[in-house]
Amino acid sequence: MHLPIYLDNHATTRCDPRVVEAMLPYFSEHFGNASSVTHAFGWRARDALEAALGTIAAALGADARDLWLTSGATEANNLALFGAARARRGRAAHIVTCTTEHPSILDSCRALEKEEVRVSVLPVNRAGLVSPDAVAAAIESDTVLVSIAHANAEIGVLQPIAEIAELTRARGVPLHTDATQSLGKVQVDVAALGVDLLSCSAHKLYGPKGIGALFVRRRPRVPLVPILYGGGSERDLRSGTAPVALAVGFARACEIAVDELEPEGLRVGGLRDRLLERLSSELPSIRRNGEAENVLPGNLNLCFEGVEGEALLLGLPELALSSGSACSSSRREPSHVLRALGLGRERALSSIRFGLGRFNTAEEIEFAADRIVEQVQRLRSVSPLWDDRRA
Amino acid sequence: MPEFYSPAVIEHCRHPRNAGRLPSGDPDVAGGEAGAAAEGDLVRIQIRVGPDHVVREAAFKAFGCPATIAAASLATERVLGQPLACAVEFAARDLAQALSLSPDRAHSAELARGALAAAVEAFRRKRGLDS
User: A5-11+260-390 and A17-256: same fold?
Assistant: First the structure.
């Protein structure tokens, strides 16, 4: 067992050695520009790129012609939102999203508001779910896009995307989902989900950082305009030299994730359940944030009553975890997702996100549980809130 | 989190000094608090003062980020052996400096000093001393 143990797989994942191996020749030997049509280097790169696009698209149940490579999910989300809003070319536009979205959605919406786009940010319930009926009710005559993430990055909850899609389709409004956290962890199929646009990123599924994709349905065609210009590309929604090596890695990562989806989901889910079982049997007053059902297999978000998250993490240098708040600002702002569930500041600041993944072992989980129990008990012995609770 | 916290904060947070409680019913013990859990930081400090008006014992409990726990721990260390009259003569910025707190965590040092000042004040009231 190697320390520290990585339990922050929602932030990023380790690039799988099989992915690294697949990419390497495309950095050195096959380094050509896929747009160079006049020589063998370019042809080789073009072939690899097309094969990669085919594999990534297949993982989504999509057609490779509907897939646009981006620098990651942030760009894919920006392209979906700005692309859809600006396609209105100055006419009134409205977007529907929800409070627990990633900053690449919410910040893009804020920026679009400065371009006179109206945005409806819907609340979620205590489990973190948005109501499909509320989405339908928020749609206006000039709504250009509904954007709801498939899985939440903090609490792992899976939104009822297929149900929302039925309602948006009936209203003729395109539906975008950010599937960055879900791709490779649970089934993601654009047809089954019924989405018109879907963002994803390689580094969340054991692929390289620096590449993602946006699926854009062609029939019916979602009107989008580019956000990056630069010509040279034969398709015009996303300019820029295709990162062939990264695309090959992204494709290999998708291939592995699809092949291993079910057994890995069960294994990682089993580790997560074991961790929860140990912590809840050995520590009183811990609460799970979000849902127990319908959640990513590797996700566990726990509130340790009476213990502040950053202090807990400082006591756990052997574990790589995330507390959802940063002590780097004068007034620590707890996670906007936990606040959206209705958690008070104190409870939100006492929460820790566990992100289990492919490379975690049962031995690591037992070790992590031992250390967490020890540190929570230690910090509770110093906590005035714990005294009050017992008084 | 070494990039966020100084070695002194890490040391105090992992090995807090004087963490615990003194029996509040004792006539020579008094306590004070600062902050609020709902705001994310709460510090309680108790002191035991000898007949010579010197702080003989100190104990703290803190809920908050590592800087807050460290500041409370350091404040109890600083006050031990001090005459009551100058128990809170140090400034919050001395605590902040000793812990190399970034300016945006100065609040943690203020809370620790605030809790200690409240404890001293409570002791004076309890014993009918002039402040």
Answer: no
